[in-house]
Amino acid sequence: MTDQAYNFAYLDEQTKRMIRRAILKGLAIPGYQVPFASREMPMPYGWGTGGVQVSAAVLTPDDTLKVIDQGADDTTNAVSIRTFFERTAGVKTTTRTTDASVIQTRHRIPEEPLTDNQILVYQVPIPEPLRFLEPRESETRKMHSLEEYGLMHVKLYEDISRHGHIATSYAYPVKIEGRYVMDPSPIPKFDNPKLGDMAAIQLFGAGREQRIYALPPYTQVVSLDFEDHPFEASKADHPCGLCDATDSYLDEVIIDDTGGRMFVCSDTDYCAARQAAGFKGKDAA
Amino acid sequence: MYVAVKGGERAIESAHAWLAEERRGDTSISELGIPQIREQLKLSVDRVMAEGSLYDPDLAALAIKQSRGDLIEAIFLIRAYRTTLPRFGASSPVDTGAMSCDRRISATFKDLPGGQILGPTFDYTHRLLDFKLAAEGELPQAPTREATPGNVPHVTEFLNREGLIEEAPHDDTPPPDLTREPLEMPADRALRLQALTRADEGFTLGLAYSTQRGYGRNHAFVGELRIGAVAVEMDIPELGFAIEIGEITLTECETVNQFKGSKTEPPQFTRGYGLVFGQSERKAISMALVDRALRWEELGEDNVGAPAQDTEFVLYHADNIQATGFLEHIKLPHYVDFQSELELVRKLRREAGATETQEAAE
C-alpha cells in the first residue's frame, strides 16, 4: 500500500543525495558532527526526524526495516515510524533483529550482536555532548576542533568527588578513535560497550539540530572514565521475569499498587526469541 | 500479571479516529468550510502562511481546519507539506515601494507623500464584545474612494536624503537559504531576517518587548508600517525577461532607531526591518525591533548581555516547530533512560545511607 503521491521513502532524490553526502562525510570522520539541511518531516521534531531522514536516505527497495523505541517494536512511536516507511517506501518490515537490514532505534542497541549486513540508525535529540557544559554552538564547535575536552573531564571528576561515581547513567559520552568526543544518543550506559568494534554501520541523525554523525564498522569507541574510576556498564540486578535472561537490559514494570514489580527485557524481540526457545522466567505465565 | 503490551498499532488507529470525530464536533452544527476560514479567519491564515513559510491561503485554511484551530499545529502541517514541493526557481526581489497599500502609517511624520492610510485596523476600536456579531447582524457598508495611483515612497528615503539615517547600500549577493542549508553561526543579517520572518510570533513579540523594557534598548520609532499587495515577478529563461506570476500581501515595518553613535559609527538614525507574509503587524514590528537589537555588533554598540542581542539564543529558539517538537517529545516513552536513572539514584541513596549509619555508629 505504497503512497504513490510521494517519492520513494518520502524525501525527494536531491534531498536524499544531500543527506547521503553528509553520511559519507560522517563515516569518513567518525564522531564528527556534520551539519546537514534537515527538512521538515511529517512527524514532529523530537519524534525521530533525524533518524527518519537518515533511514530514508539509506533505504533501498530490497531492504527490510525494523524500528524500535525503548528496545521495543510495539511502542507507539516505533509503530508510527514503521507504518510511515511501509506507506512511503513499501519496504518489508520485521520485528526480528536478525532479519532486518536497516534498524532505526531510539534509546537502545539491540541485544543480539549486529552483523556487517546491517545498518543501525539512531534518533538523536541533542547531538552535542558538550551542550550542557557550554550552551553555545559556536563555542562547542571550536572546542571539538581544538580537541579541548577538559571541561568534560572536569564535569566527570566533579561527579566523582560529589557522589563517588560518575552520575551519568544514559547518553554517556564516548571518545571515537582517540579524537572526537561523541554523544551516543540517550542509550543507557549499559549499551555503551556495544558501540565499539561493531560489525554494522552506525548512523546518528539529529533532525532539529541538523546534524549527522557516524561510526564505520569496527570503530574504536571508549566510554570516558578515569583509571581509578573505570567505566562500568550497569543494569538492574535481576534476571528477566519472562525469559530469565541475565545479560539483557531490563525495564522495571510496576504490577500492583503495593510496590510489586517485575523486571523484563527492554528488547522485546530478544525476550520473545528466548521464550520461544523455551527459556522461562519466574514471572512467566 | 504483566504481559508485554502489544497493540500500539490499534491504539494509534483508534486515537486517530477519535481525533477526527472531535475535530468535527457536534454534527448537528454545520461544518466549517475552507473558504469560510480563509475569508473570516484571515489573520489566522496569515500567521500560518508567515510561520509556515508558504504563501497559499487555501492550504493554510485547510491546515487550520485540520488542526482544530491550533495554529502551531497548522503551521507544522504547512511546513511538512512545503518540504515536498519542488523548487522551480527564485523570484525577483519584490518592490514594496510599488505596493498597493491597504494601510500605510508613519509614526514619525504627521503627513508625508503617499499619505497616512489607516486601513482595516483594530487600533482605534473599543475592545467591547460586539454581541451583534453573535446574532449575525447586517454588515455596515464601508465608504470607498479611488486609490491614489503611483508608488508610495518609503519614509526612510526622506531621512536618507539628508544623510540622517545609516545607508542601506544596494546588495545583489544572493541571500543564504535557511530552508536548504543548515543554520550556522555567525549569521549575517539576511539570514537573521529570514529566520525572524518565520519565527514564532509570541517569541518574537516577547523579545521585542524586552528591548523596550531595557534589555538591549534601541529606541525604536515606527518610521513606517505598510500592508498591501505586491506583484511577484520571475525571470523565465525561455522568455528572457521577468513576468508577473502572482500577487502576495505583505506587511512591512521599518523602524527608525535613535543612535548616539559608537566607536565606529557617527550619530545618526539606524534601521530595523520587518517583512512578513499577510497582514501581520504585531509580528512585523516585533521583527524590526529584534532585527535592530541583533545588529549591535555591526553598529559598534556594546553587548549589554540582553537576550535580544544574542544571535545564537534568538535564532536557535525562535522556530516554534522545532521548539514545540522538542518540548512535546518528552511525553514519548523514556523508560529506558528513566530505568538507568532509577538504578543510579538507588545506588547513591544506598551509599549515602551506609555512610550515615557508619557515622552514627562512630
Report on this model:
The complex is a heterodimer of chains A (285) and B (362). Chain A has 285 residues and is of the alpha/beta class. Chain A has helices at residues 13-28, 49-58, 76-88, 137-145, 150-163, 192-195, 268-276; strands at 34-35, 64-69, 92-93, 102-106, 119-123, 174-176, 180-182, 201-206, 211-215, 221-223, 250-254, 261-265. In chain A, strands 1-9-8-5-4-2-3 form a seven-stranded mixed beta sheet. In chain A, strands 7-6-10 form a three-stranded antiparallel beta sheet. In chain A, strands 11-12 form a two-stranded antiparallel ribbon. By secondary structure, chain B is of the alpha+beta class. In chain B, 41% of the residues lie in helices and 13% in strands. Chain B is built from 13 helices and four strands. Chain B has helices at residues 8-24, 34-40, 42-52, 57-66, 71-83, 131-134, 155-161, 189-197, 201-212, 281-294, 311-317, 320-328, 335-361, and strands at 100-105, 220-236, 241-257, 270-277. A four-stranded antiparallel beta sheet of chain B has the order 1-2-3-4. At the A-B interface, helix 3, strand 11 and helix 7 of A face helix 1, helix 5, helix 12 and helix 13 of B.
